[in-house]
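Handoff note, outgoing to incoming analyst
You'll be picking up this chain. Sequence as last confirmed:
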Amino acid sequence: MNDRLRATSRVLALTAALACALPAAAADRPLGDQRLEALATRYFDAVWKMDPNRATRTGVHAYDDKLTDLSAAGFNERIAFARKTLADVRAIDANTYGADASYDARMLEASLESILLQLQTRQTWRHDPSFYTGQASSAVYGLLTRDFAPLKDRVHSTIARERQIPAMLEHARENVTAVDATTGEIARGNMRGTLTFFQSVVPAAVAKVNDKALAAQFKTANDAAVAAIGAYVAAMEAGPLAHPSGTYAIGPQTFERMLELQELSPITLAQYERVGSAALAKTKADFVETAKKIDPSKPAEAVAAALGVQHPAGDMLLKAAGDDLVALRKFVIAHKIVTLPPDNDVKVVATPEFARATTFASMNSPGALEKVATEAYYNVTPVETDWTPERKEQHLAFFNNYAFPIVSLHEVMPGHYVNFALDKHERLSLIRRLLASSSFAEGWAHYDEQMMVDEGWGNGDPRVRLAQLRLALQRECRYLVGLREHTQGMSVADGTKFFRENAFLAEEPAHREALRGTQDPLYGYYTLGKLELLKLRDDYKTKMGSKYSLLLFHDEFLAHGDPPISIVRKIMLGADDDGKLL
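Most recent structure output, in case you need it:
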């Protein structure tokens, strides 16, 4: 029996133990549920038809020539469908479920409730003009970034979608009402980015097709899309953006409800803040103490900034990333961190040109149901030849010799890529395969940063630990700023100051982080998931006693898809679960 089968057998043993803890009648119930699986199949089939953009991202290509209906009627249709599906799920007697099916049902219910909260309560589609331009760019981006079909076929789909953009933006003009000043500031930048995307990036990507007639059709459709986007931006500038009103803040009640739906367990805002504040205080103290070990004569932030001096040459970034991945893989195997899947086909590539303005490095994995373009790419943003020497150096400082491997282990090994690759080989329900918890996925990758250094990555070099702690400070500040901006009246200026003073960011990145929090209230899920995972590890260690190992813990944690950690606790701890996430 190989290691992955052994891990699976351990999971089954734990599930059986959980079943034994249930009433006698429940112990005989099947772990899966055909009724729920059939309902989920119908649900996702309908979702992909209503939202072709999501279908393309998932790897379902039956609707690649369609654009999502973003009219008010289209939103009302999705609201009605979510309500009906929610009622259908709840119509199944929960007492007839087996353990796994009960977890899947909770995940689907929470997803549907989150959709309804987003569409009915937050109503971003009525208050963010760039929501629509973002939908337009993502519809085309999803077609051009993966070779799931010949380029000629994907260009046909691109043309079809672009032809629908003008009508979609007409609906947007009707839908957008009040826009607050902060969201308006962000929307202006996002819409300008979309316009540039269609003006220069899309034509460059399509230029590779060797078909003059098709190229002419594309130019006509793309020119019309560019004109429609320009007209839409002008209309927004003259309308809601010229007269901002309202607030981005969602308020305490909505924040707490979103948090509960994300975690599938109630967390009070007081507890949420208390835990985040304690985490930030500890990390900040560790950061200062670690900096003293490197150079006690300088402030901690100056010591951290000095790490940026040592970095790969500009033309060696991709090679450095590849070398780091080889070293990380060897470390994971040698230190028995996690049983790796047979896949190891992630490719280090330069970040696509149209995504370079917003990311240094990112993992681009295929959709969960993609059957053709199954390659996984680790995107690293290169130095541009026309940059000034100062800008080149600032860019390369991010990829310094101590932080770059931490970023790579977060994104690839043993972070997001390993999680994705393991999911491919697990026998998961459709719900478990398609619905992922942000705090699980990002919590795992962020947890890896600390865990790998704890286990010896960097050989005890305090500069490696300082790089890891600096990233942790940034995520902990997100946790608290998101909460305070949306529930306590923290301004963007105050949020910027908080990032500067506690994560030691420069003014521009600190401001960008504070702005992100206004649109993504729960962007503390990195830290939240990490803290939940650390507590689960402690509780699991207590449960297992002398049988505990880090390898066993990680293998079992990653064997269930990416559900909320509250569910993983029940599976892994059974009757020993105290129900406390934090």
